[in-house]
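Final report, Chapter 2: Outcomes

The project's central promise was a pipeline that accepts a single protein chain and returns its three-dimensional structure in a standardized token representation, suitable for archiving and comparison. That pipeline is now operational. To close this chapter, we reproduce one record exactly as it appears in the project archive, with the input sequence first and the structure output second.
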Amino acid sequence: HNMPGIASAATAVVIAHVAGGTKTIRVGAGGIMLPNHSPLVIAEQFGTLAALHPGRIDLGIGRAPGTDMGTARALRRNLEAGVDNFPQDVVELMGYFQPAEEGQRIRAVPGEGQNVPVWILGSSLYGAQLAAMLGLPYAFASHFAPAELDHALDVYRSRFQPSEQLDKPHVMLGLNVFAAPTDAEARLLFTSLQQAFVNLRTGRAGRLPPPVENYDRDLDPMAKTMLGQALSCAVVGSPETVRQGLDTFVRRTGADELMVTAQIFDHAARVRSFEILADAHKSLSQAA
């Protein structure tokens, strides 16, 4: 919210557009920052989406503000509860997706009985513990905050309690993938994300900048270290480099699914990157 580098913060509206223009793929929020919203409103929005596109809608929820405090206040008006009420808000939200009980006064219409799959998103141990306790699938933001990745996976898997939605742990990991015909071309495309990340961390957030040659050559040591840590979960290169990188990452982490992001400035190059990724995934699936 209130970020010029984000195409739209109206998540449910964008999901409706994408789901309406496709037929088979699942479309989900990655995700809704629940402290900014009423659980009932989110249940109504995603209940409507699930009614329009049965079996194709997922709901990922997180507890980060996703914006500055002034904008957060404008979104929800009341910040007294905030993130402290996140577990209760999650349970309340999930309750709206269950069949209504006799005498229930507040209902999500549509929404009740839809059983929309709920994911917990996170970049720390907090989300891992909550997802494990509730028996929900867990998505980790390793594409920009990988520091706690291994620890969070251990906590989630070791403490997981089966639920009606899930009988065993299920993990999705964020991964930056920048693919091009050659390693050099992919590294050039990757500089857009590097610039955007440095700009964000230094208070100069804006739209995605175009790639530049030798961007990291003139960076100061602190910025280089920050990029090396924050963007360590990235596969950048030619088709073969990408195939090997995907295989290594999945084998190391045991990820059940990947959420791939490619902040590439040129649209045609971005489409080509996803095509190379799709070919790499197909090759790995056939070899498995």
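Archive annotation: The radius of gyration is 20 Å.
This record, like all others produced under the grant, will remain available to the consortium after the project formally closes.
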